[in-house]
Amino acid sequence: MKDNGKQLMNDTRKISRGMVFRVIGGLCLAIFLLSFPHIFTSNYLRNLAILTCMWAIGGQAWNVLSGYGSRYSMGHAIFFGLGAYSSAVLFTKYGISPWIGMIIGMLVSSSISVIVGFPTFKLTPAYYGMATLGFTFTLQAVFLNWRWVGDSRGVFMPLLRKSSILDFQFANNKTQYYYIVLFLLVLSYLLVYKVSKSKLGFYIRAMKEDELAAQSLGVDVMKNLQIVGIISASLASVAGTFYAQYMLYVDPMSVYNSITSNNFILSATLGGIATIAGPLIGAIIFIPTGELIRGWIGGSGKAFDQMLWGFVIILIAIYRPSGILGWFKEHAKFFSGISKWMKEPIVRSNHDNSRM
Amino acid sequence: MGALYALVASGLSLIQGLMNIINFCHGDLVTISMYTSFLLWSVFKMDPLVSIPVCIIVSTLVGIATHKLIISQVLRSPSSFGQMFSTYGLGILIASTLQFVFTPNYRSVLNPFVEGSISIGAINISKPLLFGAVGALLAYGLCYWFIRRTPEGQALQATEQDIDAAKMMGIDTEKMFLLGWTISGFCVGTAGALLTNFYYIHPYVGETFSNISFVVVTLGGYGSFEGSLIAGLIVGVVETISGYVIGPQYKLIPVYLTYLIVLMFRPRGLMGRR
């Protein structure tokens, strides 16, 4: 939204309908997002919004490596869990602010990503998926038995009576959590947007198309994949830290779990991989739906939502690997009329160069 | 345990070599066969050893259905994304459906036909484990004989090596795919029924077997039938020894570390081609 505004200022010679719409739409969206917890005062809806934003960050993390990049991760729960645990443990044991814990979690996740990536990135995409899948269960076993991090009982955050942004705890109200997660969301999406427009973004997309060709043109495949892996792991770990501080509780079985990894995969693939907005759209669709299904049909033991998601993943994989945004692109003929109308300038300039 | 890993993994190895895709729902076929065995035991009081044929039929049918409904669709599309995530999604679907039907409780068969343990000298071997190992080796031997010694098996090998050449030689590759799924179902069904004798059953038990099978297949060599036997035994031994040395709760960690080390130094495995 901010970028549109900037573009508008730079490019005052030509104002198309699309720009006006985008700016107005962006402003409306921003106002809506900022005022969301004040419009919907029920804590249930706020909780849904917070979880959606959290998994939108997670989906974006997965999307960086597996959407733009070419290595499909089946175990982003590793980084999620490491992020959650590092902030939780540091906060409960040493009283270190979760914001510092978040950064430490990012460092830990990044180093794990490098370690896992080192042997597997040079192989075909499936090996990375299998390695991360196996590593999830390794970490589950380690954390289940590691006394220092609270073994199978997990880590309970101490409840502080007063709200403080430094300690990441707010009594009785979810509004502040919402603003924090929204802030993190905007930050991570800006980061991914920058990455996708940077040299690195073009490199990894070229590698996804044809790795050998990219390599022969002088792209360092290993290095770029590692960088992308680090970005992806850090973002996932941020989502994990937020999860830990929001739930005030982490345990190995619920974090190092294939269901957690599925959430990453789903929110990215449902919306559309290798797009900026895809993970957000995916999370907006799948988190509330999942919550509703869990509310209507049985509790956590019934796993009806997981059945649905398994089915959805199969359908996406077979029929529409590009997700919902891909559907829009495929039916571009219908939308092109709209976009042409949108692109028509309303204020024509005299020196109309070939900018658009 | 190693022999059972080898049996499960050889089914996976066969499918992966044949179809050239990664089958993420292989462990869930094991789960299905274990639940079949459990169901037969709890409804008809049928011993897990007796229910082996039923398990084989069920897991073969599920495998063939997977092939017809999902994998043959995905094979046409060029993206590796579809090939990986279709079976991954199916794994979730199977596991959660089983959870929906059978609830996530841990279950096990009480009073099976083989029980207790025998002791040779100072070593105590639990009888169900011994039965499992022997049964798995027998089943493995049967598969091996079928693949290496019969004309159908040789046609299967040819398809595995070069699908286009096999087509030109007049081999019905679609039939060979189905045959591959049948053998894989045979391996998985037998393993599942033998496991039911002593292993606990819950909807996500397959994840462990999936992961270990991947380790075994990678260690043994992609698409190598003999390799998966050796690698399966190695993994079983590594698991047992590390369970003894550093504690049973950590026994899977060395196995996964082995996987990473193998990938680092010899990605094609012990006996892999290419």
Automatic annotation (TrEMBL), chain A:
Residues annotated as transmembrane: 20-40, 46-65, 77-96, 102-121, 128-149, 177-195, 225-244, 264-287, 308-328
Which CDD domains does this entry report, sorted A to Z?
TM_PBP1_LivM_like
Q: Does the keyword Transmembrane apply?
A: yes
> What start and end residues bound the annotated signal peptide?
none
Query: Taxonomically, which superkingdom?
Result: Bacteria
One Pfam family linked to the record:
BPD_transp_2
Topological relation to the membrane, as annotated? Multi-pass membrane protein
Query: What keywords tag this UniProt record?
Result: Cell membrane, Membrane, Transmembrane, Transmembrane helix
Q: Where in the cell is it found?
A: Cell membrane
InterPro entries the UniProt entry points to: ABC_transp_permease (IPR001851), LivM-like (IPR043428)
- One GO location term (cellular component): plasma membrane
Q: Name one GO molecular function term.
A: branched-chain amino acid transmembrane transporter activity
PANTHER family, sorted: HIGH-AFFINITY BRANCHED-CHAIN AMINO ACID TRANSPORT PROTEIN BRAE, HIGH-AFFINITY BRANCHED-CHAIN AMINO ACID TRANSPORT SYSTEM PERMEASE
Query: Which protein are we looking at?
Result: ABC-type branched-chain amino acid transport system, permease component
What organism does this protein naturally occur in? Flexilinea flocculi
Automatic annotation (TrEMBL), chain B:
GO CC annotation, single = plasma membrane
Query: What are the GO MF terms of this UniProt record?
Result: transmembrane transporter activity
Q: Give the keywords, sorted.
A: Amino-acid transport, Cell membrane, Membrane, Transmembrane, Transmembrane helix, Transport
- Example GO biological process: amino acid transport
**Key word Cell membrane present in the record?**
yes
Family matches, as Pfam families: BPD_transp_2 (PF02653)
Q: What family classification does the UniProt entry report for this protein?
A: Belongs to the binding-protein-dependent transport system permease family. LivHM subfamily.
- Recorded protein name is Branched-chain amino acid ABC-type transport system, permease component
InterPro entries attached here? ABC_transp_permease, BCAA_transport_permease
Q: Which domain of life is it from?
A: Bacteria
Where is the chain membrane-spanning?
51-71, 83-102, 129-147, 176-195, 253-271
Q: How would you describe this protein's topology in the membrane?
A: Multi-pass membrane protein
Instruction: Name its cellular compartments.
Output: Cell membrane
